[in-house]
Amino acid sequence: MSYEWQAPKEGDVRSPCPALNAMANHGYLQLFEALQKVFNEDAILATFQVANCFTIYGKWFAGKISLEDLCQHGKLEHDASLCHVDTALGENWIVKKDLVDQLIASAIDGKIKPESLKNTFRARYLNSKENDPDFTFGTFQVQLAAGEYSLFLNIIGANTNKEVDAKVAEIFFHEERLADEWTRPNSSVSLPTIIKTNYEFSKIMNAEIKELN
Ligand code: HEM
């Protein structure tokens, strides 16, 4: 099997997750193995993620999850995403170029940093609050979004100082491709690392939400 990137073909299914789509576009499909191989997650983090999603989607008996399952709103999929519209406003798995541009414009010194994600989250939250009649963003959604930001900064940031080169981020979100300049984290990424950043983001996001309501 070749792991060259290939744009999805007519009829291929994709999800609202840029990381899973990037793995699918590169031809990796075994989730547990791919999370370790592609993103250098350690076995505990990969087990945690895979077990969590098999539970959330009730797929233990089926033994597999499709990218389409991940589009179900109210499970892992939530409102106020960085680069996807809310389910009530359109197709939640399609990447929106103007939203990618908004995210990339939040870069500081050419890098997407925690502050960039905080500012983009704020804009996305306000937009959903104004335009989405079904807008929901409670404690669970804060945890989910904070988890995504944490995975992004630690893994796509490749264990650097929780920052991602803006070009690498643009390619990841817009093309769902792992940029040539991107290097896999040189040591494995652990569950405690992800939880720590998740906790820091949850605090920041809860403070923002309080201010905006
Ligand atoms: C079992 C593994 C994973 C599952 C089941 C999963 C699932 C999802 C789902 C359903 C969403 C959509 C949430 C929304 O509505 O915005 C999402 C978004 C996201 N995921 Fe994943 N994901 C996984 C692994 C990863 C990894 C390893 C990374 C980073 C390397 C990652 C980064 C992201 C980011 C940054 C978003 C936010 C997209 C946006 O806000 O537009 N995910 N993921």
Q: Indicate the structural class.
A: mainly alpha
Report the C-alpha radius of gyration, rounded.
16 Å
Q: What small molecules does the structure contain?
A: protoporphyrin IX containing FE
Mean pLDDT: 94
Shape category: globular
- Strand fraction equals under 5%
Physical arrangement of strands within the biggest beta sheet: 1-2
Q: List the helices and strands in order.
A: HHHHEHHEHH
Fraction of residues in H or I helices: 40-55%
* Largest sheet report: 2 strands, antiparallel
Uncertain residue segments: none
- How far apart, in Å, are the first and last alpha carbons? 51 Å
Tell me the total number of β-strands: 2
Structure annotation, total helices:
8
Per-chain topology:
Elements: H1 18-25, H2 31-39, H3 43-56, H4 97-105, E1 111-112, H5 114-131, H6 139-156, E2 164-165, H7 166-175, H8 191-212
Antiparallel strand pairs: 1-2
Protoporphyrin IX containing FE (HEM) binds next to α1, α2, α3 and α6.
